[in-house]
Amino acid sequence: MEKQTAEEYLELAELFKLFGDGTRIRILSALRSGEKCVCDIADELDMNKSAISHQLKSLKMANMVKSRRDGQNIYYSLSDAHVQSIINIGLEHIREGKEER
Amino acid sequence: MEKQTAEEYLELAELFKLFGDGTRIRILSALRSGEKCVCDIADELDMNKSAISHQLKSLKMANMVKSRRDGQNIYYSLSDAHVQSIINIGLEHIREGKEER
DNA sequence: TGAATTGTTGAACAACTGTTCAACTGTTCA
DNA sequence: TGAACAGTTGAACAGTTGTTCAACAATTCA
Question: Which class is A6-100 in CATH?
Answer without folding.
Answer: mainly alpha
